[in-house]
């Protein structure tokens, strides 16, 4: 009598464990509906200084109230938003930076190669992770060896004499 009851309890536990939430790390779209991160707030409307001189309409193109995250970030960091206009090349003020950053060569397919290597890494790491009774954080599992302990890094920088900001206490 005890063996069938134990089997029923184990089967029920396994069935219920499949109903749990995947958590925040599962960022795949849940369906074909709209993506809430694709909706960006627009800039506030402003009145032009002179109604006689208005910009030409750009059907299907950008307008003055459209967000420009890259340009806004460049402007917030003290750069010139006009440097992002395609086709203008690298400004002369940035030539030394470009030369220094590319002094060892820059492969043309860096993003593609990195994406392929990461996909192969995750495939190797995930061979046996599908066999779980309870939900786990697959991202944390795959990249556990690459994680940086912020408390160890803070201590290392402090020992080296670098000024570091205060940090919350480490959980015991």
Key terms:
DUF3035 domain-containing protein, 172 residues, 6 helices, DUF3035, mainly alpha
Description:
By secondary structure, this protein is mainly α. Helix content is 36%, strand content 0%. The chain contains 6 helices and no strands. It has helices at 2-17, 69-76, 95-101, 110-125, 138-142, 150-159. The longest helix has 16 residues, at 2-17. The mean pLDDT is 79.
Show the helix and strand layout:
Layout: H1 2-17, H2 69-76, H3 95-101, H4 110-125, H5 138-142, H6 150-159
Query: Percentage of helical residues?
Result: 25-40%
Quaternary state of the chains: single chain
Strand content: under 5%
Terminal Cα span: 45 Å
Residue ranges: pLDDT <50 for 5 or more in a row?
Answer: none
Rg, alpha carbons: 26 Å
By DSSP (H or I, 4+ residues per run), the number of helices equals 6
Summed over residues and divided by their number, the pLDDT gives a mean of 79
Would you count the extended β strands for me? 0
Largest sheet: none
User: What is the 3D shape?
Assistant: extended
SSE arrangement, N to C? HHHHHH
Helical/strand content category:
mainly alpha
Protein name: DUF3035 domain-containing protein
Organism: Ruegeria marisflavi
InterPro entries: DUF3035
In short:
36% of the residues lie in helices and 0% in strands. The chain contains six helices and no strands.
